[in-house]
Automatic annotation (TrEMBL):
Pfam families: Esterase, TPR_2. TPR repeats lie at residues 363-396. Keywords: Hydrolase, Repeat, TPR repeat. Residues 122-143 are annotated as: Disordered. Coiled coil: none annotated. Belongs to the esterase D family. InterPro entries: AB_hydrolase_fold, Esterase-like, Siderophore_Hydrolase_D, TPR-like_helical_dom_sf, TPR_2, TPR_rpt. Gene3D superfamilies: alpha/beta hydrolase. This is Tetratricopeptide repeat protein.
Length: 410
């Protein structure tokens, strides 16, 4: 986090550190202490014509931003929603907090299973993990092969429903584990434009005599442009020679050797984890990979101003395909840091002016900008800001007092 990095790099002497603690808002030097609220979700029933059945769906929505009531959010769709929905929702909720700020707030759509083998396998096959046919009367593989039909359900029915009923951005992530992993890979290979980023945790490439490895070899050509992100991983699923591990190395080799334009990829191996514990680490690492450029990079702190911050968020907007707005609280904290540490009042004012432009309904933004103008000695501009803050929120007694003080001797 950029604020912690500020402290580690720039506050070597205790006396300076103590001075900074006195002058700086708490959230710049430590985590905030928000009231605990358990994850809650909308639970909907979607009648699918594609699947000819009703499907239960879990949907987590970030808290309403009162300053940006029309704010829209990226969406993460996760398979095995009955197992992984709450885990991912908690990760996203924490990592998007204002005092963490390494990813955006995001809508989570969990897709619980109804017939997992049917929906999460791309072909019909009765060949098991050991390469032997399961011809028993109760073979769990008999219903397999509905994966492409399931992707049609997601693309033609689920995504349109979510887009119609929730405030979504175009950036979408598709995440899955094991059979869910080959489902996300199959989507990337056959319908890459359905999602912007893909997560495949221990994908079951063994399925149907490594069908998807052959498909990857066919589809991932170096003359293709695939402007997507993909994170894939495996764990200790039978030592280093396990089918999961060797097959994922084959897939990774295809991705690396083809050097596909625009395909941003990362492979992670978790030898100390099992097939079922791996998602706890892998989903976190996948989110950090996809949004690794989200926070402001460390730079020459004296040069931080509105131009630098705007440029960073313009780059994020281009990367993720929607307009990304700098968080009001974080911009204010950077401005206060610049004043306390460098006396860089003009740079701080440029940041606070940007806040009033991005958050025109925020009385706090105008009040804080008024404080900065007053500190500079520009009473007339301070008065304008205080009046604007009071117009937005008339009951602010502290702002009324500031306005009275700034108006004297004008």
């Amino acid at each position: 986090m950029i604020y912690n990095s500020f402290l580690k790099r720039h506050f070597r002497k205790n006396i300076v550190y103590i001075f900074f603690i006195v002058l700086t808002p708490k959230c710049l030097i430590a985590q905030t202490d928000p009231a605990f609220k358990p994850i809650s979700a909308d639970i909907i029933k979607l009648s699918s014509k594609v699947l000819d059945e009703d499907r239960k769906i879990y949907i987590y929505i970030p808290p309403v931003d009162t300053l940006l009531p029309d704010k829209r959010y990226p969406v993460l769709y996760v398979l095995d929603g009955d197992n992984h929905f709450s885990l991912i929702a908690e990760y996203c909720r924490y990592l998007s907090r204002k005092d963490v700020n390494v990813m955006p707030e995001i809508i989570i759509v969990g897709i619980p299973n109804k017939n997992r083998t049917r929906d999460l396998t791309p072909t019909n096959s009765i060949i098991d993990y050991d390469g032997k046919p399961d011809t028993s009367s109760n073979s769990r593989f008999k219903s397999s092969g509905g994966g492409n039909n399931f992707l049609q359900f997601i693309g033609a029915e689920l995504i349109p429903y979510v887009d119609a009923h929730y405030k979504t951005q175009p950036f979408k992530i598709f995440a899955g584990h094991s059979f869910g992993g080959i489902t996300t890979i199959n989507c990337l290979l056959t319908q890459p434009d359905m999602f912007s980023a893909y997560i495949a945790i221990s994908p079951s490439f063994w399925w149907d005599k490594e069908y998807l490895l052959s498909l990857a070899d066919e589809k991932l050509k170096n003359d293709r442009d695939i402007n997507k992100m993909i994170f894939y991983s495996d764990a200790d699923e039978g030592m280093s020679e396990s089918t999961f591990h060797t097959n994922l190395l084959k897939f990774d080799s295809i991705v690396i050797q083809r050097k596909i334009v625009g395909l941003d990829h990362k492979y992670a191996y978790y030898p100390e984890d099992t097939h079922m514990t791996e998602p706890v680490k892998a989903y976190y690492d996948a989110l950090r990979f996809i949004f690794r450029q989200w926070d402001l990079p460390l730079t020459d702190l004296k040069s931080l101003n509105a131009t630098v911050v705007k440029q960073h968020y313009q780059q994020l907007s281009q990367r993720y395909g929607y307009s990304v707005t700098p968080p009001e609280v974080n911009v204010h904290n950077i401005a206060m840091y610049l004043i306390a540490q460098y006396g860089a009042l003009d740079n701080a004012i440029s940041l606070l002016e940007m806040n009033t432009q991005n958050y025109p309904a925020s009385a706090t933004a105008f009040s804080q900008l008024g404080d900065a103008y007053l500190k500079k000695g520009d009473r007339s501009k301070a008065v304008i800001c205080y009046k604007k803050a009071l117009a937005l929120k008339p009951g602010l007694q502290n702002v009324k007092a500031k306005l009275a003080g700034a108006s004297e001797n004008q």
